[in-house]
Amino acid sequence: MVTLQKPGIKNELAQDEAKRSRLALLSILEDSKLTETEVKKANQKWSETFDALTDGISIHSPTFEIVDVNRALCEILGRKREELIGKHCFQVFHGRDCPIAVCPLKAALQDKADHSIEYFEPLFNVWLSISTSPIFNESNTITGVVHVIRNINDRKRAEKALEEFSKDLELKVKERTFELSVLYEVSNIVSYAMDYQQLLKKIMESVHKFIDYDIGGSLLFDAGTASINIRPVYPECAKFTEEVKNGLIDSTAAITSENIRSKHISEELSSPDPSAKPKEGRHLDAIYSFLNVPFSVQGKPIGMVNISSCKKNAFSEDNIKLMNAIIKQASVAIAHLQEVVAAEKNKMRSMVESMVEGIVLTDDKGNVSIVNPAAREMLSMGSDDILTTDGVLDRFEDLREKQFPQKARRMMADVLKGKTGVLSKEIMLKAHPKNTLSFEIEPIHAVGSNDVLGAVTVIRDVTKAKEVDRMKTELISNVSHELRTPLASIRGVIDNLLDGIVGEFTKEQKEYLQMADADSKRLGSLIKDLLDLSRLESGKIEMHIAETDLNMLIEQSIAGVKTQAYEKNISIFNKCPHDIPKLFIDPDKIMQVFVNLFTNAIKFTGNGGRINVAAETLPDEQVKISVTDTGIGLTKEDAALLFQRFQQVGREYGPGAKGFGLGLSICKNIIQLHLGKIWVESDPGKGSNFSFILPIKQKKEILYASKDPDN
User: Fold this and answer.
1) Taking CA 701 as the corner, what is the angle to CA 698 and CA 705, rounded to the nearest 5 degrees?
2) Do residues 348 and 183 lie in contact, with contact meaning Cβ atoms separated by under 8 Å?
3) Do residues 116 and 137 both lie within one domain?
4) Looking only at Cα atoms, what is the longest distance across the chain?
5) For 346-379, what is each residue's pLDDT tens digit?
6) What is the CATH number of the domain that holds 288?
7) Which CATH number covers residue 583?
8) Structural domain that includes position 566
9) Is 214 helix (H, G, I), strand (E, B) or coil?
């Protein structure tokens, strides 16, 4: 049976179906528009956040193309976004056709790890800090790399300014100290009677070339002293010494009305030439002729010159005129020298008084000659205060060391006796309790000899420098503390992963985790070194003094580095005598010194090398300990920098052990905290010998108070 429909009904059904299709299509389109709007809003939000970051951010493809950059990076580089996107980063950042040697992106692609560098980019004339982190997909493939870039120009300028300021200050101090030394040497050459005596000795030697005499002498005097020099020409004439001396004293007293015998008289007998022979026929049995000539300077008699002969009527009128002319000429020369010296003294005084450093000058007897205004102000001395050695040194009353004036006297005496070179100490005076002063005594040597003519004491206010140093130490300490907590979390996570808590890893994944574990441990060690140095330099470290067996401490220290030595087949030998006395030290701190020295020796000693540890007892209850290696050795220039913090010798880019250069600086601080000292002796290619001295017995109160590295 066939059902027939009207044509109109069929058309209506078709229209309904088309209408429903259009509505469905409109619904799909509406949903699509809503999704697109949400995506645009999310992209807009991300772009706003991306551009709001103050650090420069760039995203790179694995092929070094720049995918995106934020506004901060554009400002750092002075480029527009469209000038950067799609370009290779090495072209944009370095103007090169390939990555630079230290490219962090290249390194991140190679080892799939984070990297950071600081470098100067001449293309933009800017110092940059770049931290790089790779982006991984679900299959652990790098799909991109994120750069965080900071402009560190200001920090670098500050570091350079501080370094230049320190060098400039050190250079100025050295230059001024040298000028003072030269000026003081010039002023002392003719300032004392003994210098006149040396001049008269030269005169007596010269006179014998023109006047035939057998014995001569000179006498010089001042208000309280007299000095006499007798010069026999022939050994046989020494028997006339007393006769010539008495003749000088009596003739000087007669001319000047001075009571020479009441003065403190010093005598000197010059040795004659043992091979000298008197002229043929001369009998050296008695003095028959003599000539006394007064010695005056600027019209004031200061002495007498004598020549005597065993020959009767030995001196002619011409001889007498010549002798008078020589002495007169010498007097004129001395008067001229005194004028020069006076001018030099005035020049020196003007220079010294204009210096911002405090200056105290003393002669070879320890008498104070000059205290400049800066020193008077620092020592709270009035302009009318009498300049005596005790009066000046009594002002060095250190708030941290009550007996320091007595110590300053000993320091001054050692310098003047030539027992030591430069001595320095940091002090805090009662007059300026908030300021730290640097107190430095340096000997003044005669030109061309080691004779000590006196000493110069330089006092500088180092309060600001100490504050800057304190801030640096505090910054290092704070940064280290901030790093330690997240690092502990990272190490905990890595340990859990290696223990298989989240499941097994592939061999390659496990290797990466082991690399991360090793690096995190190394970073933890570096942070520990930073904190140790910070505590040592700030004096906030606690000492635990105990009687300690040195041999046992050395063996424990060797055991702590046995694995490192084994890896390079290096032998460590303990050659410390068994009868070495026990030391009163902090065993943990001294073990840290041994471990640092052993680690350093292993690092710079080739495979199959050896390290020797030796000790010996010294006078004054001290023990000297030496750590000697067969390593690459050091130049004198490198050795001079070795114990400074953040100094590394022979560091190169590439694989191998790296650090902050703190180990030896920590050793120095620990040894100085024990009132000892440490040094190195080395030659390139001949290994190194690190030695340090420790007192056998320590006083605990001294150890806790000893925060001054120069003490």
Assistant:
1) 110
2) yes
3) yes
4) 187
5) 887 788 778 878 888 888 777 887 888 888 887 7
6) 3.30.450.40
7) 3.30.565.10
8) 542-705
9) coil
Do residues 317 and 359 share a domain? no
CB atoms within 10 A of CB 412: 20
At residue 653, the pLDDT reads: 41
The CATH number covering residue 89 comes to 3.30.450.20
Same-domain status, 448 and 554: no
What is the C-alpha to C-alpha distance for residues 32 and 46, in angstroms, rounded to an integer? 21
Half-sphere exposure of 543 (CA within 13 A, CB side): 26
Cα distance between residue 214 and residue 208, in whole Å: 9
**The dihedral formed by the CA atoms of 443, 447, 448 and 453, expressed in degrees to the nearest 10:** -40
- Residue 232's closest CA among 292, 274, 294, 295? 274
Tell me, yes or no, whether 284 and 311 share the same domain.
yes
The overall pTM is greater than 0.85: no
* 676 neighbors 695 (Cβ within 8 angstroms): yes
For residues 95-131, b (16+ Cβ closer than 10 Å) or e, as one string? eeeebeeebbbbbbbeeeeebeeeeeeeebebbbbbe
**Closest to 366 (Cα-Cα) out of 424, 459, 444:** 444
Q: Is 228 helix (H, G, I), strand (E, B) or coil?
A: strand
Q: Answer whether residue 531 is part of any domain.
A: no
- Dihedral sign, Cα of residue 404, residue 410, residue 413, residue 418: negative
**What phi and psi, each to the nearest 5 degrees, are found at residue 295?**
-115, 115
pLDDT of residue 614: 93
Q: Looking at 286, 310, 340, which one is the last position of a domain?
A: 340
Q: Are residues 325 and 238 in the same domain?
A: yes
Cα 74 from chain centroid?
A: 42
Three-state SS at 418: coil
In a domain, 646, yes or no: yes
Whether residue 126 is found in the same domain as residue 250: no
Residues of the chain with pLDDT under 50: 1-6, 175-176, 178-194, 651-657, 700-711
Task: Point out the domain boundary residue: 340, 365, 392.
Answer: 340
Task: Compute φ and ψ for 591, nearest 5 degrees.
Answer: -65, -40
Can you give the pLDDT at residue 574?
92
Q: What is the structure's pLDDT at 570?
A: 92
Burial class (CB in 10 A: 0-12, 13-18, 19+), 211: buried
Same domain, 132 and 243: no
Question: Using an 8 Å Cβ cutoff, are 60 and 145 in contact?
Answer: yes
Using alpha carbons, select from 544, 529, 558, 581 the residue that is nearest to residue 674: 544
d(CA 317, CA 330): 20
Residues 74 and 170 in one domain: no
User: What b/e sequence results for 141-155 when a residue is b if at least 16 CB atoms lie within 10 Å of its CB, and e otherwise?
Assistant: eeebbbbbbbbbeee
Q: Is residue 695 part of a domain?
A: yes
Distance CA 242, CA 221 (A): 18
CA 10 to chain centre: 104
State the Cα–Cα distance between residues 298 and 593, nearest whole angstrom: 66
pLDDT at 711: 39
Q: How far, CA to CA in Å, does 607 sit from each of 559, 653, 657, 683?
A: 19, 21, 15, 19
Three-state SS across 627-659?
EEECCCCCCHHHHHHCCCCCCCCCCCCCCCCCC
DSSP line for 117-128:
EEEEETTTTEEE
**3-state SS, residue 56:** strand
Count of structural domains, the chain? 6
CA 516, CA 522: separation in Å to the nearest integer? 10
Cα angle, residue 237 at apex, residues 318 and 245 outer, rounded to 5°: 75
Q: Tell whether 517 is covered by a domain.
A: yes
Please choose, from the candidates 561, 688, 703, 708, the residue with its C-alpha nearest in 3D space to the C-alpha of residue 633: 688
